[in-house]
TrEMBL record:
Species: Meristemomyces frigidus
The entry's keywords: Iron, Metal-binding, Oxidoreductase
The protein's name: Fe2OG dioxygenase domain-containing protein
UniProt xrefs under PANTHER family: 2-OXOGLUTARATE (2OG) AND FE(II)-DEPENDENT OXYGENASE SUPERFAMILY PROTEIN-RELATED
InterPro entries for this protein: IPNS-like_sf (IPR027443), Iron_ascorbate_oxido_reductase (IPR050231), Oxoglu/Fe-dep_dioxygenase_dom (IPR005123)
Highest taxon above the source species: Eukaryota
Length: 301
């Protein structure tokens, strides 16, 4: 007599990416992707709230979101280039902007988490390996109390017409989703020789340096830049970054050692210049890079 077999729900979500898409993102470090409807709906609401925010006076924007932690939190201006707001925690809970930011954050983190799982699935690694790295990252944090550990961020940009740019770089974190309005973002296509810059015309996912390092260079980090657009441009950038607490077991991805997560992250980051800092800060960081004999194309975002 046949035994009763009980099938529970699968422990992991089904794949998002096709085999071909996994191959593409691994070799290029970037992948244009259609967003699921519910994520797209949240994005539209956030984009409309973003435009309203940037309509405020510069003083209002500065007062509402004072910049802190260098460029890493609050409203920041790079004269002649861009303005941007980095959200890493709730500050004005009941505003339309933060409400939409919170909804978008929740949906985009689970979307990007699933893509990380797809990479692990393709490499034959445990799909649960990311859980620890993504601790406390799935919701917009309620307060600033854990910002030393929770590094994920949502960045809303307004680029100046023509002069609004970002120099070429790879992002430091795990995965970034960029959605820009109009031409501006370009990614480096390495399928041709020599590699060429091509326009990213829709939503695009980029692999960050931390994922490249965890996966032991089996995937590339996506090199990208922003070029001037005569009309200026808004963009929404969500950077999923690691939770910097405790240790990470590199054996999860076929490596050998257990590392202190923060130290590992800082080492990857190195002394690369910050492409979103003001010109004088960037120049100081570049000088440090020169002194260390590093490539000047080694910016991070
Ligand atoms: O604005 C964009 O589309 C991309 C910006 C970027 O690459 C970054 O801030 O790291
Ligand atoms: Fe970037």
């Amino acid at each position: 007599m046949a035994e009763d077999v009980c099938f529970g729900p699968p422990p992991w979500p089904p794949p998002i990416l096709t085999t071909e898409q996994v191959r593409h993102i691994a070799s290029q470090g970037w992948l244009p992707l259609e967003l699921p409807d519910d994520l797209l709906a949240s994005l539209r609401e956030l984009q409309s709230a973003t435009r309203d925010f940037f309509l405020r006076s510069d003083d209002e924007k500065r007062n509402l979101y004072p910049s802190s932690r260098g460029t890493e939190c609050g409203f920041y201006e790079v004269p002649g280039e861009k303005q941007y707001l980095t959200l890493r925690h709730n500050l004005h809970h009941d505003t339309t902007l933060e409400c939409h930011a919170g909804n978008f954050w929740r949906k985009v983190t689970s979307f990007l988490h699933r893509i990380l799982c797809d990479l692990n699935r393709a490499g034959g690694y445990d799909l649960g390996a990311w859980d620890h790295v993504l601790e406390s990252s799935h919701m917009l944090p309620k307060s600033a109390s854990d910002l030393d550990m929770v590094t994920t961020l949502l960045r809303l940009f307004k680029y100046e017409p023509t002069t609004g740019i970002a120099s070429e770089h790879v992002d430091i974190g795990l995965l970034t989703l960029c959605i820009g309005g109009g031409r501006g973002l370009q990614v480096l296509d390495r399928s041709v020789e020599p590699p060429q810059w091509i326009d990213a015309t829709g939503p695009i996912v980029l692999i960050g340096d931390m994922t490249r390092a965890l996966l032991r260079n089996q995937v590339r980090a996506g090199r990208h830049r922003v070029v001037g657009n005569p009309d200026g441009r808004y963009s929404t950038v969500f950077a999923l970054r690691p939770h910097l607490k405790g240790t990470t077991d590199l054996a999860m991805w076929g490596g050998k050692s257990v590392v202190d997560t923060r130290e590992f992250y800082i080492k990857i980051k190195g002394s690369k210049h910050n492409i979103n800092a003001t010109h004088d800060v960037r120049e100081k960081q570049r000088q440090k890079q020169r002194k260390n004999g590093e490539s000047l194309a080694g910016g991070i975002g």
